[in-house]
Amino acid sequence: MSRGLGNVQRSVIDALLRRANLDRYVVPSDAAIYELIGIEDPPRSVSGRWRWYTVDLLGLTNASNTRAARVSLHRAVRKLGESGHLEVSVMPYDNPWAAYRDYEDRLQGGIDLTELRELDRRWPSRMNQTLWFRLPPPEHGPPPARDQLAILEFIDDYHPEPFADFAATLDREKRWRTPTGEFLAWLFLGSGVP
């Protein structure tokens, strides 16, 4: 007989559901953002229902938490992954993200996701040594085109011009303060960036 979800597991699921329901990006009237979204009739807002999180990015922990509390959260996430309530990964994103291979098979373009740590200290400095998790995306059919997951896939597959321009910008600090940079930051970090 199953005991059901524990308190820590419920708090993880509740936090993910809350973010899935409330995390929206109001799309400004900006041609570059419309191009990044990749659909003909740009929506007024896009959502982030299936974003990858860490316990820090989801706000489940902070500097005052003990190591035991963090271990308990990670254990709960792993159990939720084993039971199919969550998808769990060690590294869900390529880094550099959205890079492509040139004719000599060298990586070109793309962005170094560790730069996101400059925008939000909760972003992990060692992304491949962190437990990532998310609500499972829809099993049947693709996610809606207005969702963060579909937009990331579109940018990664097609490298629209605003993304290529962003990736080619040498001033890394300045590029994240552009409309394109702010939108890309939202795609990875969500609302609530400190």
Produce a short descriptive summary.
This protein has 194 residues and is mostly helical. The protein has helices at residues 7-22, 31-37, 67-82, 116-119, 148-158, 161-168, 172-175, 179-189, and strands at 24-26, 45-47, 87-89, 100-101, 107-108, 132-134.
What do these coordinates show?
- Strands 1-2 form a two-stranded antiparallel ribbon. Strands 3-6 form a two-stranded antiparallel sheet. Strands 4-5 form a two-stranded antiparallel sheet.
- The protein has one domain.
- The protein has eight helices and six strands.
- The chain is globular and about 50 Å long.
- It is mainly α and 194 residues long.
- The N and C termini lie far apart (43 Å).
Topology, please?
Elements: H1 7-22, E1 24-26, H2 31-37, E2 45-47, H3 67-82, E3 87-89, E4 100-101, E5 107-108, H4 116-119, E6 132-134, H5 148-158, H6 161-168, H7 172-175, H8 179-189
Antiparallel strand pairs: 1-2, 3-6, 4-5
The percentage helix is 25-40%
List the secondary-structure elements in sequence, H or E: HEHEHEEEHEHHHH
For the largest beta-sheet, the strand count, sense and barrel status come to: 2 strands, antiparallel
What distance separates the N and C termini?
43 Å
Give the count of helical stretches. 8
Count of distinct structural domains = 1
Poorly predicted runs of 5 or more residues: none
Report the structural category: mainly alpha
Report the average pLDDT across residues.
91
Shape: globular
- Total beta strands: 6
For the CA atoms, what is the radius of gyration? Answer: 17 Å
* Sheet with the most strands: spatial strand order: 1-2
How large is the share of residues in beta strands? 5-15%
